[in-house]
Amino acid sequence: MNGALAARSALRFVLLLGIVSLFGDMTYEGARSITGPWLATLSASAITVGVVAGAGELVGYALRFISGPFADRTHRYWATTMVGYAINLFSVPLLALTGSWPAAAVLIIIERAGRAIRKPAGDAMLSHAGAVIGHGWAFGLREALDQTGAVLGPLTVAFVLARRLGYRTAFASLAVPAALAFVFLLIAWRQFPRPRELDVKKVPTLVAESGRFWIYTIAGALVAAGTVDFPLVAYHLAKHSVVTIASVPLLYALAMGAAALSAPLTGRLMDRLGMPVLVSGVVVTAIAAPLLFLGDARWAIAGAAAWGLSASLQDATMRAMLARLVPPDRRASAYGIFDGIFGVAWFAGSAAMGGLYSLAPVDLVICSVVLQLASVPFFLLSQR
Prior knowledge:
Blueprint: H1 3-41, H2 46-62, H3 64-74, H4 77-90, H5 101-133, H6 135-162, H7 166-173, H8 175-191, H9 210-226, H10 230-239, H11 248-273, H12 275-285, H13 288-294, H14 297-323, H15 331-359, H16 361-381
Helix pairs in contact: 1-5, 1-6, 1-8, 1-10, 2-5, 2-10, 2-15, 3-5, 3-15, 4-5, 4-8, 5-6, 5-15, 6-7, 6-11, 6-14, 9-15, 9-16, 11-12, 11-14, 12-14, 12-16, 13-14, 13-16, 15-16
């Protein structure tokens, strides 16, 4: 396969996975935009919201310790991805049937478990296309489509709520994008049954020692611990009437829009400049918590945009850089390990943030900013 043909095939594969991500995110990010207020209507407290969100992320990342190595060991990347997507997508419409916060919490956690099963294998397959067209560009383009869906989902939910059709109808309406995501996943599988064959270029890894990988992982864990999960943000905005209930999913859509616009740009810059792009992004996005929890509606808009930039860095730029640190045959395992530690840190941070918020929002803000900025020296050390 010549270079031009390889690049076209790699780009087509990235676009197909991006379309899957678009409809997938439309499904579960649409639900995520209202899970905080939904749990509140089911008599859940702020601590409960924080713990449920954190537990979902814990399961959604910790299971990757298993799913990543399993995919590398068995080479069943597509099978692992499909099973994960089936669980990930179709648990969302079932939220329409819940009548208590424990039942809703179980489905929220199951949805995250499905994502844990399919994510390392999917990222490993995507990294083969990135070896041809650039890891930053591949992950950034996928992230842009991913976050486009994350905009459309909350907008769909906001439309349903604005028409006073209720939370249950909003959750049920997300069955349509869930089905479309799975259809395009099957198309991608049929057209590219062996994604490893896309990897015609042998891109050398930046570092060889496992110590650098662990330093990078510590940095990612600090970012995770310092990131406030959006359900707690939504809980705060709704409870204190910073914005209207119907505006909460609109703010989430704004955050996802910021992520969609920034991901390809930061990906391209990372391919050219490397780690300084990631470090600069962490410094900028550390302002999200102060804006969201200490300001009025105008500051909340700016905070939502900064929160979206943070999501872009975590889901695109950090993953693209990790692909450059690990050999191709170990990437699913590396993503699984990195994500597992990331999720444990996210859970600890989310639970702590819920407790700190109950004491004083300013305590939450201080903790969030300090933890995220503490990651910067570790990111720099991983590249020295």
